[in-house]
Every structure is written in structure tokens, then in C-alpha cells.
Amino acid sequence: MENKKTKWSQIYFAVALTTLATLVLELSLTRIFSVVFFYHFAFLAISVALFGLGAGGVFSYVVAGWKGRLFSKLGVLAMIAGVLLIAILVAILSLSAELNVRTLAFVYFISAIPFFLTGTIVSLVIAETIERVDRVYFFDLLGAAVGCLVLVPLLDLLGGPNTVIAAAVLFAFSSVLWFNLSGSASGRAVGLIVSVGLLVMLGLNARMAFIDIWYAKGRAVHDELFVKWNSFSRVGVVKMEPNLRVVIDADAATDIVNTDFEHFSPEQRHASLLEGTGVPYMLVPGAKTMIIGSGGGPDIAHALAGGSKDITAVEINPIIATTVMRGVFADYSRHLYSRPEVRVAVEDGRAFVRRSGEKYDVLQATLVDTWAATAAGAYALSESNLYTVEAFQEYLSHLTDGGLMSFTRWGFEPPRESLRLISLAMEALKRLGETEPANHVVVLRDGGKDRLAGFATTDTVIVKRKPFSPQQIDGLRAMIAPSAITPVYLPGDRAVNPFGELLLSSDPQAYQSQYHFDISPTNDNRPFFFYTVQPRDIWAFVAGGRQHKADFKVNLAVPLLFGLVAVSLVATALVMALPPLVLGTRLPRQKGVLPFLLYFLAIGVGYILIEVALIQKFILLLGHPTYALTIIIFSMLVFSSLGSYWSRKLLKGSDQRLQWAVLGIVGVVAVLAAMVVPVTTAGVGWPMWFKVLATIGLIAPAAFLMGMPFPTGLSRLKAWHEPSVRWAWSLNAAASVLGSGSSIFLALYLGLRETLLIGGLMYLCAFLLVRLTRSPLQPAR
């Protein structure tokens, strides 16, 4: 390689900058996909990136045969990645068509292009610097870790589209470093011009937004009065007569309350409570209240109308709580968040409940779902952790003896989310020693059962800490009689609908298993509340998922995951088949080489299974998917990079030491799987700084060991057959695609702990592959 002996530091820095740009692009695309499409598609960005990196590794065989200096070729590839990225961003933001397979395929493959180019770059560099692969891989992971660290401030400062443009700037600047290594003055000059041009574009777009979200969910986005991004949402405010409405990721919405409570007559107060979400305040006037997900303030308004003087409003999104409600639209909301009766906490609702030492008369959560995802996965929603048995047990434990818990969900027909609330309440009450849950629960439906896009209306499930008395139920019937509220189930009713059938069932588990949808109680190990497809119905749903739009939106993961697994299988097959065609007569003939290539598949699948399971699992502890994503991936990358850095000194190329390192991963992951559930559940109320330290401390040993097998395996493979090194890189990336799709599927149906253990099992397979194949560097036994 040209001058590589004197320019190692530049090579390291160029590799780090390339992977930094790649990680920033990958994770910023998750935000773009969540807004432009639906939140499920955020996970698609991870698959796109890994698919592109794997395909780039295969393409590196072709580029290696091109004439010219290696670093000049890398500079050209990096510059093309930066320039094309702008065109790709514009193409994605211009999609106005309804989401379909053709659109998805188009997005998938154009989005993969920059990752394809960077995969080619990194694969070529690793193959050419194999004698220092431990150092190169260290800077590869370190650059990605820095990318993960800067992602949150970039999204907060610039927003989604501009963060993608920032990634383009980084790619272009990395081309300058590659051209500098090649000694090409003209290439360096062109790279600088492109870098500065993209930087100017970034600055102008930050002010003028000429590249922005034009279409979302197939509809034009226009007439927004306010827009602001942060790392986990895009918050807009639009005029929606007669109110202003906060819209999150161009989908989930909450109206901004504009009520003048200073001139609110008793008649107006009573009328405002005649809907499901107002009933708790009719049952407990003047209630000490906690509201989870206060949004634009409708539940606060109900509490005030009911005479509450002590209202704690917990809102996880600082843009809504601070910028919208106490800033730009404070006057419009009549300073609702600043009223003396209201205390606002910008925090995860469950974490706040866990920390709170108080008891409440009413604990309420109305339609708390942002439909906004992060790279943590298709169902990595903080809201999912609000809807588990353990969470419901905590809520009920924070109620006074006469207190009520009120949760409102969409009233699908047949019911599923609201019915699942019943399952959660029944199990939580059982754990608290209550034996007759049917006497603790009221179910109310607002309006009739007219269906709109698969939705009926809203169901409010009210759970009382102690049983309702007959007098309370009689009073409730009288209260709601003049309203449009339908009493779906009241204590004492017969089993005339699914709610009564479940509550009065002698075998709730049997009823749940035979029901049309999965309404079994979710728990902290399997917290996917919104996903309700029964395992037996997967194939039917894949074939006809669009029959009901609401089902398609809420349960979209089924066809998406099947498609993703299919794509990953094809990608893995191509990566396994194409290199031999390119290598031809240079195929490895030595015994053990081809079986050892499976080792790279095993560690690729194992790493991503463990990483995704940990991200999902630590959402509960850290309070939001973005925090889990940032801290877990950053910790994994940093400590894995350190493991790579120390792998040569600690393992010394010894097969026996490599086996012990891989076995060590299996053991540490098993311990982690045993500890993660009790730690994350018990630590919800810890201070944030302690949560972060505990998370890093738990993950560091496994991540350090997991950084060793890949560079050590490449060195081992080089001694056998050097041309197969790029093949191994491609297989590892393709395996990550397969693992990423499989991880969510496994988590949905088995659980996060089980997904973690299966990741450890893949490392056990890697151990066996090392043991069964003898490196030529090792002395004969």
C-alpha cells in the first residue's frame, strides 16, 4: 500500500471519519423513515445499512481489480457517497405515493447505495491493512461510537434532513483524507470543494428548509405553524378547527387546550366531563391527580373541570412540555402548564411513578403512543413499557384505597388494545392479592361503533384499587345516562361482550389464547403491547394485512419482518455465492477455511441479537428509546473497540485463547440475561446518572470480549487464505442483516431475555467452529 508505513495515523483517522459518517447516516435515516412512512420502518434503516455494507464487501473484490492507487479509489467512492446522498434524500422526501411494495423496494435500494460505497471502502482498507487489523477495527468501531454520541445533538440542533446532509459533508471530507493519502493534489482539491459546497448547503438549508419533509404517510405536509425536531420526534403544530393541534412525526396528535377556566360555569364544567376520560373526575371530585402523557392538556383540563387542586402532569417530550406549551403557544393555551394547580415533569411516566413516594386519587393515561420510533427497532417504544403487568402493578400501588387508574385506548372492533388493558389489570390485581377483578373494572366507550379506517372510537378502562360498591356503580349509571358514553362493562353485568367474557372467565389464559388477537398480558420481558397478531395468524396476516387499515398500521411488523428476513436471507445467500464466482481459481482449497467462514456468520448474528435485545431491554431503565440507543450502542462500540485493540496482546494469535474469549462471551451473556430483568425493573426510579453508570457497567465486560473475535478471526483467516478476508467481512455484515430481522421476531414471540440468550448461543457455535478448524499458525497437536 502507498506509504502506509508512514501514514498509519491518517489511515486510522480516515477510517474513523468514514464510519462516523456511516453511523450518523444510518441512525438519522431511522428518524426520516419514521416521519415519512410509519414508525415500523425506522427499523428498515438498520437493515438497509447492513445490507449495503455487506454488498459493498462483495463489490470490493471488483474495485480491488481496478487500475489506480487504492487510496485514490477510496477517495472517489467517498466523494460519490457524499454527493449521491443529497440526491437520495431528495428522492425519499419527494415520495408522495401510497406506501406499497414497489415504493419500499425503491427506498430500500436507493438508501443502500451510500452504505454500499462505505462497505466497499472499509472492506478494502481492512483487507489491505490486515497486519494491523486490530488497530484498524478499533478505529472503525471508535468512529461509529463517536457518530452515535453526536447523533442526539445533531438531531436536536439540525433536525432529520439536515443531519443527513451533515453525514454527506463528513463523507466528502473523508474523501479529502483518502486523496491526501494517495498524494493526489487534484483529488484533494476537488474533495475540498465538494466538502465546502455541501457545508454551505447545510447552512442554507438550516435557515431556509428548501430540503425538508414534503410528504408524510403519502400526504402533503403543509400549513404548519411550528416545527421542531429532537432526537426522537418531529413536533409540528397545525390549525385543526376549532383548535390548534400538536402532531408528532406527522401522525400521532394531541389538541392544545384553549379553555378559559377563570370564566368556566358549573354547567360547562359538568358538560366537559361527559366523556370517558372525564368520568374519573366525576367519580372522585377534587382528585389528587397524576397524568402520564399530558400532551396539549386535554386530561389536565378534565382534572381542572373536576375540581382538582393538585395535578402532576408527566410529559416525556421536552418540545411539547417546554417549547410548545410553556413557550410559543403558552398564550394560546392560556398558560395551562403554568397554572398553580399543575406541576409538570419532563420525564418518562413510569420512571416518575417509580420515584414518586406519593399516592394519587386518579392516575390517567389517554392514548399515550407517539408512533415515533428510533433505531432501537420497530417496536422499541417507550410507551410499550407503560403497558406491562409490572407497570400496572406499580400504578395500582400508587393509588389511594379509593383511587382509580384510567387508561384510554382505541376502541377497535373486535377489541384488542382496550381488551389487553383488561388482561393487564387482571394480572396486576391478582399479584396485589385481589381475587375478583370483575368488581374492580369499568369499561366505557365514547360514542357509537361507527368505524373509520378500522377504528371504532375510544375505550376507557377504569380500574379501582379496591372493588367498586353497588352504590358507586348505580351512581355512575346515573351520571353517564344523559351522555353519549356507552357502558361496555360495569361490575355486576353479565358476559355479553369480550370484556365481560374475559373478566368473568374461569380460565382467562384459555380465553386469551383462543381470542382473535393476542390480548395476553405483556410484561417487562416482552413489552410489545401494540402488537396483537396471534402466532397462528401470522401467515394469514402477511397475505391480507391491508384488509383493515388500522390493523395494517398497528401490526405492520408482521409483513415487514417477513420481508426483512427474506431480504436478509437473499443478501446472505448472495454474499456467500458471489465471492467464489469472483475468486474463481483462487478459491480456498485448504481444509477448514470454508467451514471457518461460518464463524463470521455466527459472530455477526450473535452480536446484533445481543445488541438489539439490550437496546430494547434498557429502554425501561433509561426511560426512552433514544437514550437506550445512544448509551447501549455507544458503550458496545467503545468497549468492543477496546477489545479489538487489546485482542492481539491478550490472545496472541492463539486458537486456545480465542476459544476461551468466545466462551467468556457465552458466560458473560448468560449472567447478563439473568441480571438484566431484575436490574432494569428495580432501577426505573434511580437517578439518571446512576442508571447510565449501571448500564455501562453491566454491558462493558460482554462488549469488551465481543470486540475480540472478529479481528482475531480475520488474522487467523489471512494465514489460510488472504483473498477470503473481504469475503469474511461481507458474511459478517450479511449475518447482521439476518440477525437484525430475526431479533425483533424473536423478541416479539419469545422475549428479550430469550433473544439475548440465543445471541449467546451463536457465540457458542462460533466456539465450536474455532475448535473444529485448526489454524495453520497453530502447532500440530
Q: Low-confidence stretches at least 5 residues in length (pLDDT < 50)?
A: 371-382, 449-454
Number of E-state strands: 14
Mean pLDDT comes to 87
How is the biggest beta sheet arranged? 8 strands, mixed
Between the first and last Cα atoms, what is the distance in angstroms?
36 Å
Strand content: 5-15%
Number of helices: 27
CATH class of the largest domain: Alpha Beta
In one word, what is the shape?
A: globular
Structural class: alpha/beta
Radius of gyration (CA) equals 28 Å
Overview of the molecule:
With 781 residues, the protein is α/β, with parallel strands linked by helices. It folds into three domains: 1-218, Up-down Bundle (Growth Hormone, Chain: A); 233-533, Vaccinia Virus protein VP39 (Rossmann fold); 587-781, MFS general substrate transporter like domains (Growth Hormone, Chain: A, Up-down Bundle). It is 60% helix and 10% strand. The protein has 27 helices and 14 strands. An eight-stranded mixed beta sheet has the order 9-8-7-10-11-13-12-14, sandwiched between helices. β7, α10 and β8 (311-314) form a beta-alpha-beta unit. The chain is globular and about 85 Å long. Mean pLDDT is 87; it is low at 371-382 and 449-454.
